[in-house]
Amino acid sequence: MSTIDIDASAFQSSGADPRKPDAQVLNSLAMQLCACYSVSDSEKELADAVERFLKRFGHLEVMRQGDTVIARTNMGRATRVILAGHLDTVPVIDNFPPAWLEPGDATIREDVAAAHPGERVLWGRGGVDMKGSDAVFLWLAAVLTQPACDITYVFYDHEEVSADKNGLGKVAAAHPQWLDGDFAVIGEPTGCGIEGGCNGTMRFDVVTHGVAAHSARAWMGDNAIHKAGEVLDRLNAYEPATVEVDGLEYREGLNATLISGGKGTNVIPDECRVHVNYRFAPDKSIAQAKALMFGADCPVKLDGGECQATGGVFEGFDIEMKDESPSARPGLTDLQASKLVRFVKERTGRDPVAKLGWTDVARFSALGVPAVNLGAGDPLLAHKADEQLAEGDLVLMAQILGDWLG
Amino acid sequence: MSTIDIDASAFQSSGADPRKPDAQVLNSLAMQLCACYSVSDSEKELADAVERFLKRFGHLEVMRQGDTVIARTNMGRATRVILAGHLDTVPVIDNFPPAWLEPGDATIREDVAAAHPGERVLWGRGGVDMKGSDAVFLWLAAVLTQPACDITYVFYDHEEVSADKNGLGKVAAAHPQWLDGDFAVIGEPTGCGIEGGCNGTMRFDVVTHGVAAHSARAWMGDNAIHKAGEVLDRLNAYEPATVEVDGLEYREGLNATLISGGKGTNVIPDECRVHVNYRFAPDKSIAQAKALMFGADCPVKLDGGECQATGGVFEGFDIEMKDESPSARPGLTDLQASKLVRFVKERTGRDPVAKLGWTDVARFSALGVPAVNLGAGDPLLAHKADEQLAEGDLVLMAQILGDWLG
Fold it and tell me: Structure pTM?
């Protein structure tokens, strides 16, 4: 297996100014990261290179667990900020290896060209999600030799696959002290804006039961699918709320995403399952969200089998919990956060907005660390075949974080 | 492959009296038929044996198509009656080969022992559905050398599997004249009562459409499962009728038997299908039943794809027709039928009742031949692992049909 080395020659002289990012250096780092294939389960080569790169700098303590690499300053500052980015990407769709597109290249998306006129564009898998942000974090790790607060840099594996493989989750379980901090920034693409907190999510089956019979003698049975009509009626009657938390608006959702029932075309069905996804705002804990769905005293829990809802939206129905993940408050009332909000506003004119999907900010939130998403690139291009990152976003992200932490 | 021969020694002397059935002879025939394995697709050995048996009798003309054997008298009578029984059985469930259970045997079901005290019981696959009736038909074919009307005996294959394999259907398509007649009796188990006509049945998907989206941004999509709530509401609001036809009561039914929808746990579903089974009484043609469901001018048809209902129960929804089979009127107003009704009443005290499931009487009905079910054995024991036929039913069935046709 070939090994790559991330070029550190630009950092040999100690004169790099964290407030004046060098576009060439940032572009080079981003290209080197993208050029190293790292679809989930194949992060090792890139993690090795990141580890070797970080170990070159005497102001950093470097730790590793699996393919997650952590580097931190230990300067005894009053505050510690965490900068976290995942190293893995979703699978390649004819978009590897990466390439630079010069301004005017017809391959550049119209929306990218319009937002970033005259800029070069890094084309290929991972540029947006999220090796551009990783490049900025590596640059900051190299140049912030005297940061205003202590910093922990986290480069982790397995973010794009099932939650149980997530490198950040494994570090949180094995070495929670490595993730100690006062505030965290995750480099998920936001176009360098702040997306704060995230909705929680739970998924559960609402189960109706009946009695099977031949459909020629339907009155001998009891139709479980017909009973599910009431479940769908309640979903249709439910009006999802928009909830303001720390000044940001979180839009909730309650939706059936799957339905199945019946044993045969001529058999009265004895069971029907409506799979429901509830996305709830960060003003609610999982317990509070469950109380709204099933009643406060309903003991339904993961792997706990069926349990009758004693109240809430699904009162009287049997519930089987399938998945639950907490929400995360945006944490923008924190002192460090409010400074970051100000720098973003100065550089981009943008105010923080709510993150709607579930992201790893919730993992930090669960560890007691407020967290936001801030990263280079248009989030709508993540996972697409024509993932494209304009170079200007790298400099912008580096300027914002350099101002904040330099 | 071994071949079996059905014992015809009892019929060597021409003195057998069709009005005085010999229990031993009937029992022996039933046991021989049951002892020949004939699960659907494996009827050939039994069909061969039946064909050889029937060809021994000079008063019968024997025809064959596939594994369907037909024998008929050609005496120039004014009326022709058809007696039809299928030779195949559903799969064996540890109930082959068959055995005789003596009175008092603990293996005899309580309900059978109570209804037939002191009788021997034929245990095993096919006894009830419907080799007992087949044995009586073979006996009649042998002894009715001078019947009151001409008789066509039909022993057919593939009744217990999908309709396109049905031997009776294949004869109806290839040689419809072989099934000419004025009235038909099918030996489906009825405990020797008359079950007349049958409900029609149609199955169709009611399809709702939406727009897929990530469930974290549900408002970008349009939930097709939620729309199916209205379909289930209409099914719940529908009150199935009980319809009297020719003096018999037919109970209708309208039921969802399957439901499916959704593409993933986190995706707003873009399609949902509710599979509905409508069982309609013999006062309605298929076209009339469709009009009630979808509106009189809705052109929905088999293999015709989706079609919007213009009226009826499912007005406004997209429909895809999956299966349709006509109902059959009981045909009890016919002269031959009314005689049979009288003989059954004399021997059993029972009046005709409606057949609710769909049976091959509808095939005869479609050929213009009124038909009823009348056969040996308790219909509730058909297809069960402990299929049991009390010997008395064989004699009773033979007496009724012997009186009627002798």
Answer: 0.79
